[in-house]
Amino acid sequence: MTRRLDVLVCSGAACVSSHSAKVREALTQEISRQGLGDEVRLVETGCMGPCELGPVLLVYPDGAFYIRVQPGDAAEIVEEHFLKGRPVQRLLWEDPEARRIAEKRKLVPFFEKQSKIVLANCGMIDPENIEEYIAANGYEALGVAITEKTSEQLIQTIIDSGLRGRGGAGFSTGLKWGFVAREESPTKYVVCNGDEGDPGAFMDRSLLEGDPHSIIEGMAIAAYATGAAKGYIYVRAEYPLAIKRLRTAIEQARHEGLLGERILETGFSFDLEVRIGAGAFVCGEETALIASLEGQRGTPLPRPPYPSTVGVFGKPTLINNVETWANIRHIILHGAEWFRSVGTDKSPGTKVFALSGNVCNTGLVEVPMGTTLRELVFDIGGGIPGGKGFKAVQTGGPSGGCIPAEHLDTPIDYESLKALGTIMGSGGVIVMDEDTCMVNIAKFFLDFSCDESCGKCIPCRIGTRQMKGILERITEGQGRPDDVGKLRELASVLKATSLCGLGQAAPNPVLSTLEHFADEYDAHIVDHRCPAKVCKPLIRYGIDKSQCRSCDVCRKACPVEAISGTPGGGPYVVDDEVCIRCGSCADVCPFGAIHVAAGAEVSVAVPGNGAI
Amino acid sequence: MHKQPAHNACYTKLSEIIQANRHIDGPLIQVLHQAQELFGYIPTEVQQFVAQEMEIPPSTVRGVVTFYNFFRTEPQGQHTINICLGTACHVKGAQRIVDVLVDELGIHVGETTADGRFTLTAVRCVGACGLAPVMMIDDEVYGKLDREKVREALQRYAA
Ligand SMILES: Cc1cc2nc3c(=O)[nH]c(=O)nc-3n(C[C@H](O)[C@H](O)[C@H](O)COP(=O)(O)O)c2cc1C
Ligand code: SF4
Ligand code: FES
């Protein structure tokens, strides 16, 4: 019998952690039990996107999309669908019931508002099988490039396409290729930056895991265009699956004559090696990455000289981000005009974002540049869960900033985001609801930058520590009147004098929250109050007398015996001196009687609102 | 402590790895990754061995080992708990999960329990932000954590 069905099982990180492996095992067992081994094939794919609905399955050719599949559903799916051809309605996302859930959770736009170019293969093909990639027009662009085009033509096409680096800075990719091509050197390198250090981002990971050949193809085209014979893919050690799949893909490409000597029987030779990082955020910066790739401590160097002149082992080097590489083959195949027809004039194409935080639909999304933040957060993301209000959306990770509600209609492109005091960054988008304290968020990012500062230059090494210290004391209720001024002063020194982008951009989270949420800083510093009720020294736990039924649950849950009372003996009380503000009591109270007040000082109990 | 024969075998293997990497440019970090896989961590003796075999100063090796978060110079517990402190997890209350872990295990981040069962470390994003807050115990990801789920997860490794 021939193969009838391909069942794609998402094995992106989120689905794996919702135990997609167990679902796959159960399916495998059922398939062989029903004797369908030859007809139905299970394929492990990269992230399909809607992580919130995992584990998810996609069945080809009928396109049935199953959500929230449990191992226990395997028997039914195999028997009803794979054997009898009747998809299991209750698990399909289009099913009226599932669709109603999807609609209620505003999930329809999650699927319908996206436009997938670089992610088109992710979740659709088996990343460990080069034939599937080739079947999806894979390596066609490479073939066209090396047999029909000159270096100049290719570079001109990339310049004309307007493609800009997706690693954060948004520099013209075509111009960069041109710089490297122009260098007179017998040895040149191309490098893929797969360090993806932004905490809260997993776009590059999904691409490397879900479509590794698209990166290889992009790099091979660039190697031909710039005159490089060797390339490196630098991947962070935290992504073992990506490393494994890349190595498999490279092996397969070599075997097919798509890497190695005399590719496709032309005079062009190119080979790739995977290099593993070792956990340092600064190694995403290109000069630090090069040092790390060479086996050294990853500290940045002053630029110029740029890597395009002096790069890996001192040779001219072209370095691009994972997603930038993944765009190349599409531009070569469909042309610069086509690429420019997507996105905006100055930022053509699409961008992949990792949507997370306080948003209903989390996961990986790809939208045309120029989509507004509102569309991203409220349409595709489905808004804020739990009926909470929106407070801010953060882009650009530790180098970016927070955007408040009034700017939600800003189109996503490099310039517009910059004007708001943030950056496009690599694509992490974190949505924050009303319960988020913006001073705490600023402190979080400064803590990160301080931790990750390589220590090479003084403004960053000491400046981040100082800024973090000030933020710490503000969140502890020890803020001083001139602290905001001090933060601004330090920020301008860091921006102006740090050696690399880490130090230069580290103040951004502070500056953007100062700009858009100044009142929260005032509340902390002047009133010793944390309006979002996050900063522990600035909140108090209390029990609402009218709601407490003296059930004793909270007293038992408190790890420090701060709660006293006797069962049935009237409202319990919290001893503020003893309380460590761990929130255990609020978690367990069946009557919602535990309340948090946003101030260190005792406020007068107002009947009805629960403040103590 | 490692038993001596096993230890010797590790050194022999490491020596082979170093030989095998001689032909590549700038191999130190790649060698150290494999050394850590062999020994579980990279103590001073291993650093010195690498330096000697690769004919580079021990200070160079130490400089690299201490620069990167991924390399450990202390032995690890039987299971490693990596609590994610990335942005998405932070926004979803990762700090409270840290508090619960610290409370349950009686150790701080970066420490190992007295019985050698757990090492608690913090990482920045494991790439499962959609399930925040997240932790990993060895290779297993645990998502959408709350106090109860943390306790349940720890239970599994208690035996
Ligand atoms: C502190 C710091 C971290 C960076 N991290 C990354 C990263 O994780 N991935 C990435 O592609 N670029 C990162 N970059 C940007 C790179 O330096 C470089 O601009 C980029 O890899 C160029 O590729 P592109 O033109 O395709 O964007 C980082 C820059 C700085 C200053
Ligand atoms: S700015 Fe910070 S990270 Fe960059 S070189 Fe200076 S100390 Fe290192
Ligand atoms: S921030 Fe925790 S998994 Fe990404």
Major β-sheet profile of chain B? 4 strands, mixed
Average pLDDT for all residues of chain B: 90
What's the order of the H and E elements of chain B?
HHHHEHHEEEH
Number of domains of chain B: 2
Most extensive interface, chain pair and sizes: A-B, 57 and 44 residues
Number of helices of chain A: 24
CATH superfamily of the largest domain in chain A, called what?
NADH-ubiquinone oxidoreductase 51kDa subunit
Low-pLDDT sequence parts of chain A: 602-612
From the alpha carbons, calculate the radius of gyration of chain B and give it in angstroms.
18 Å
Classify the fold: give the CATH topology of the largest domain in chain B. Glutaredoxin
CATH architecture of the largest domain in chain B: 3-Layer(aba) Sandwich
CATH architecture of the largest domain in chain A: 3-Layer(aba) Sandwich
The neighbouring-strand order within the major sheet of chain B is 2-1-3-4
What is the CATH H-level superfamily of the largest domain in chain B? Answer: Glutaredoxin
- The number of helical segments of chain B is 7
Tell me which oligomeric state these chains represent. heterodimer
- Give the helix/strand class of chain B: alpha+beta
Q: Say how many strands of chain A there are.
A: 17
Count of all domains of chain A: 5
The total strand number of chain B stands at 4
